[in-house]
Design a protein that fits this description.
CATH superfamily of the largest domain: Peptidase S8/S53 domain
Order of helices and strands: HEEEHEHEEEHEHEHEEEEEHHEEH
Shape: globular
Number of helices: 9
Radius of gyration: 22 Å
CATH architecture of the largest domain: 3-Layer(aba) Sandwich
Structural class: alpha/beta
CATH class of the largest domain: Alpha Beta
Strand order of the largest sheet: 7-6-8-5-9-10-11-12
Length: 424
């Protein structure tokens, strides 16, 4: 009897822990949620997609079935370890590159030409210089960003409609003091995301440096994109267990505030039951011209048959990236798929910024995704009129081909030089 009672309590506790207090509902055309008697707080995410916060989510799923297209749970389901910096190599010597005076720029091996297994950053800068590049905002949806880092502070996006530190939503966008972005993991009493998205891990700061660390400031490294602003959005917990509600809100915030590229170096094996993230990607591509670049994942598997999310969603506004090594092969950990994975890019032992003015190497498709996002931003700075689908096509159609990447849709590695050459 005692063992049965304990088992019952354990099971009920487990079920309680899995029971979501938030659900995402897409209402049918013509249905106004405000006219319905919904027991809970209802907030619009985009279009006719809403998040409902309630203690009665299971009951609401049944009650709203007739007026919704889908209802999606918002579970936390899959904690995992995020990449951490490898020990810093103190033997690294300063070696100035051809285009950058940043002392460790030559340490970023993705800058090398495609023949040396990089993504041809140096060659592109030499061949296609421009003094009239457009400024491109790239949102980093991750563990946050160290916006005080010496190599990032001058490239951070700044919300000009907000006054820092006054505790007021000056621009009326629903977020207080969102100077450089938002934190969807830390919410106020009303459930609104807060404004300080400082990185307490390292992941998001490392990703940001790859995309856009300040060039030619005589400090640290150089990012791939030359005229970029980094918008930091803290949505991925240090335990790596992000939720769909937070991801969707992050996408919408980024696109509304001008991000033309969103980098997503995260993912999980469980699709929470709906299509909200996919529809959010479709929506921001159409309404705001924003491309989402996502990591393929690090499980060494074919995600055509064993999906991971968001990489396995089918969206023309999503570009999925596998990881390569400096020797020109696919990284051993990288996921692949001729339908689900679009391109490959530098992802093993990538050197970049880490919190508190430090630098270090990390490995993962989490590093390959920002390499590609940086290339995308640099292309857009030359050709800002490109739509998300056009930008995706340019990236996929101008890769450096290799049989090592035959298990991707493009069959090749991202190549900035080839992409810019194709647009001349």
């Amino acid at each position: 009897m005692k063992s049965t009672l304990i088992l019952s309590l354990l099971l009920s506790g487990s079920l309680y822990a899995q029971s979501p207090k938030k659900i995402i509902a897409k209402f049918k055309e013509g249905v106004n949620p405000a006219s319905l008697k919904i027991d809970g707080k209802v907030k619009n995410l985009f279009s006719n997609v809403y998040v409902i916060t309630s203690e009665r989510t299971e009951e609401l799923k049944n009650e709203l079935k007739a007026v919704t297209v889908f209802i999606e749970d918002n579970y936390k389901t899959q904690k995992r370890k995020l990449e951490l910096p490898e020990p810093m190599d103190k033997s690294i010597s300063e070696n100035q590159s051809a285009n950058f005076n940043d002392p460790y720029a030559s340490k970023v091996w993705s800058f090398k030409n495609a023949t040396s297994h990089g993504v041809s950053v140096e060659k592109a800068y030499t061949s296609y210089p421009s003094n009239t590049k457009a400024e491109i905002i790239v949102a980093v949806v991750d563990t946050g960003v160290d916006y005080n880092h010496e190599d990032l502070k001058n490239v951070m996006w700044v919300n000009k409609g907000e006054i820092a530190g006054n505790g007021i939503d000056d621009d009326g966008n629903g977020y207080i003091d969102d100077i450089h972005g938002i934190d969807t993991l830390d919410r106020d009493a009303d459930g609104n995301a807060t404004g300080d998205m400082m990185d307490t891990h390292s992941h998001g700061t490392h990703v940001s440096g790859t995309i856009g660390a300040q060039q030619n400031n005589g400090t640290g490294i150089a990012g791939i994109a030359s005229n970029v602003k980094i918008m930091g959005i803290r949505t991925v917990p240090n335990s790596g267990d992000e939720t769909d509600v937070d991801v969707v809100e992050s996408f919408i915030y980024a696109a509304k505030n001008g991000a033309k590229v969103i980098n997503c170096s995260f993912g999980k094996d469980r699709n929470e039951g709906g299509m909200a993230v996919k529809e959010a990607m479709d929506f921001i591509g159409k309404e705001y011209g924003t491309l989402v670049v996502a990591a393929a994942g690090n499980s060494s598997r074919d995600i055509d048959s064993r999906p991971t999310w968001p990489a396995s969603y089918e969206s023309e506004n999503l570009l999925v990236v596998a990881s390569t090594t400096s020797r020109g092969s696919m990284s051993y950990f990288s996921n692949y798929g001729t339908k689900s994975v679009d391109v490959a890019a530098s992802g093993s032992s990538v050197y970049s910024t880490t919190p508190r003015n430090r630098y270090g190497s990390m490995s993962g498709t989490s590093m390959a995704s920002p390499t590609t996002a940086g290339v995308a931003a640099e292309i857009l700075s030359h050709f800002p009129e490109l739509s998300p689908t056009e930008l995706k096509a340019v990236l996929m159609n101008n890769t450096t081909q290799s049989r090592n990447f035959s298990r991707t849709a493009s069959g090749g590695r991202v190549d900035l030089y080839n992409a810019l050459k194709s647009l001349q």
